[in-house]
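Before relying on records like the one below, remember that each one covers exactly one chain. Contacts with other chains, cofactors or solvent are not represented anywhere in the record.
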Amino acid sequence: MKRCLSCQSDYQANDWLCPTCGSQPEQMDAVLAFAPDLAASNDGLAPDAHHALEQVQDRSFWFRSRNRIITDLVQHYFAGARSVMEIGCGTGYVLAALAKALPKASMAGSEIYTNGLGYAAQRLRGRATLFQMDATRLPFTGEFDLIAACDVLEHIEDDRRVLREIHRALKPGGGLLLTVPQHPSLWSASDDLAYHKRRYRRSELGDKVREAGFRILRDTSFITTLLPLLLLQRLTSGQKKDYNANAEFALPGWLDRLLESAVGLDRAMINLGLSLPVGGSRLVLAERPR
């Protein structure tokens, strides 16, 4: 169902005109905008961040490896999902991987910045419906079989509210997939430049997910094999005032492939059912109870 963000009523309709109060979202850059005042500037991300990401994602082991781990788990736990939304889809890199992994599912993506949605539209080529919206105010109730938010919650002050909104937007039995950066001790200039509000403690994300009413299916770290290297990087170059975060994603090809192979070990262990206790990132897969 759709939810009117003006009067908070839920309704079934083909369009977005609220039958109760008559309000409807505006059109912005060829997408429906539910939070137009935040579409160009907010405190969650640098305005030019998606332009930079679009240049590096395909060439970075980190983005490729994260996609593989995400799609492995989605295909294992939620292969039957027929309606999927990614919150904070950015340039559509994860959403495109989900669309490929779930070819029969209808796909939707949301992003607070409209400049990210332009890239997503090019990448998805009509495979997904795209929206501009604020993750703390979702215009859906009981609508989706699966909702993903990959490296999104750390950009939002009230992450608990986002989890409650996702819980409402999911169908009973629907799935939640989250990835976040982990370990406050790894905080560096990279987190400052990315507008992160936090790096999560080891059990923090799982605790907040349960608090929102979900049942956890998997809770594991990744970027575990590379953790010593990541820690060294964060304690050295990551503390410099002139730190260039994009340099992390512009590695020589041989080094990028070597690091990708290392993260492949994390992926293999996760696919065996192991929950890795530490790592640069955390992944939680959960279910809204029926």
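The radius of gyration is 18 Å.
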